[in-house]
Structure of Farnesyl diphosphate synthase:
Amino acid sequence: MSRTFELFLHETKQLIERELPEFIRTINTESRLKEAMLYSIEAGGKRVRPVLLMAVLDAYKFPIKDGLEVACALEMIHTYSLIHDDLPAMDDDDLRRGKPTNHKVFGEATAILAGDALLTHSFYLLSQITHVSAETKLHLISLFSEAAGAKGMVGGQLADMLAEGKLLGVNELASIHNRKTGELLAFAVEAGAVIAGTTPEDQRKLRAFGKEIGLLFQIKDDILDLEGSVEAIGKPVGSDVHNDKSTYPGILGLDGAKAMLASHYDQALQSLNELGLRNTLLEDMATYIVNRDR
Amino acid sequence: MSRTFELFLHETKQLIERELPEFIRTINTESRLKEAMLYSIEAGGKRVRPVLLMAVLDAYKFPIKDGLEVACALEMIHTYSLIHDDLPAMDDDDLRRGKPTNHKVFGEATAILAGDALLTHSFYLLSQITHVSAETKLHLISLFSEAAGAKGMVGGQLADMLAEGKLLGVNELASIHNRKTGELLAFAVEAGAVIAGTTPEDQRKLRAFGKEIGLLFQIKDDILDLEGSVEAIGKPVGSDVHNDKSTYPGILGLDGAKAMLASHYDQALQSLNELGLRNTLLEDMATYIVNRDR
């Protein structure tokens, strides 16, 4: 990892982890609800969506703070989706990032409501973005709601559920993942481009790069689920296999999955080439996702 | 009920019931998710929030169609809240408007996701409002997210849950209801005022009227829960008492609750007086809420 990228990761994480809880602490609501929201918001994680967004801003020489509200909205919606996914009626997970899941600590009802509140508040935050025009804010809200809703993440979650126990082809699996996690990652990249005011053509290309990143992320996750340690990944090793879920190594074998990872990594770099954004933090980000051990 | 008001109710309901499902049918997503969303969206109901919004538009001589997107967003968010409230981990209800609840038909996981999708899509809809400026849209999104989120409805739902089995005073009960249902009803009224471009002073007064409407609505609901028939209200009579929930008749007695209803009805009319909006559909609406038998 380059020294610059390491510093950038550190700075971004620090900014998010300082500002994100503040957006929740200032809401006038029940302390129990706030506590449940903050519990999952502060559970850590890689903050990949904010990092992606801010890497785009940096590549276009914008200050990363210009992406603060969108970055925090992304973390809120990502966190709500994890809380709801972990519920007994869904994936029924007891552990998340090495800590008890939200409903294990606060009970199911509060966990459902904490998720609903985070989801709703992410839109409040988007309505309050500084530094951009009203039209740009609305454009971001429109893209964000599509990436997070029935067309994107929520629909992908249902598709994932319906696919459980079924034998999927690699394209079907990629299509489900694309909606479940790819759309929101692609939005993170696209939002950076929108805030930086790049051309529609560059926005389209960056969106495509964001989709590659989503794919890289998921393939690597599946590989880590087989090869990682419980300490590093914060959940039992092999839990996907246990949950009867299709995975890239399950379909292609471990070597096949690694080859697919390498090939999409090349495609991601190719996209950056076309954008004239090689040797930026975006390249470091793709490399980081492929090489991470957690 | 005046002939004009009856026609208005009919016209508004018809518009909503024709257009609302279309906003969902056109989403590109899993048919099962769409089916679950449409099941609850098409379960009927009084469409009180759209009616309130459109009554304000009519009072200011605006076409009711100018409120279509906000009205449908209101119905989506209201419907999501019912789906989540009915879940086994929450109120655990099997019946809603005389029909099996969403999770009884589609299972818990799909019901959770259908709620999430409706909530998310309501914001998409608000980003697409026609007839108003970008600034006005953002203002509506900001008000809407506050009314629906931790500060408003979701927080009220948690407060309601925490209060179960406790002996509440009438002010505590009113404060919980104000957040659980009042904020969104007040938003419906305020949104009408914002779209009609009224003065901030009138917006403030209309918001106060909306809060009175919310209170009237809840007191009347509690009275109907005791006096109504299962055919009319679509759920078992006395289910609040059975669920160990505080109600206005429970605290004040049936006569006391009716007196409170009458007094807040007077206050609602007083607000309309100050606005110069007596003898509009808004007065009919208040009267309708107080006199309804379901």
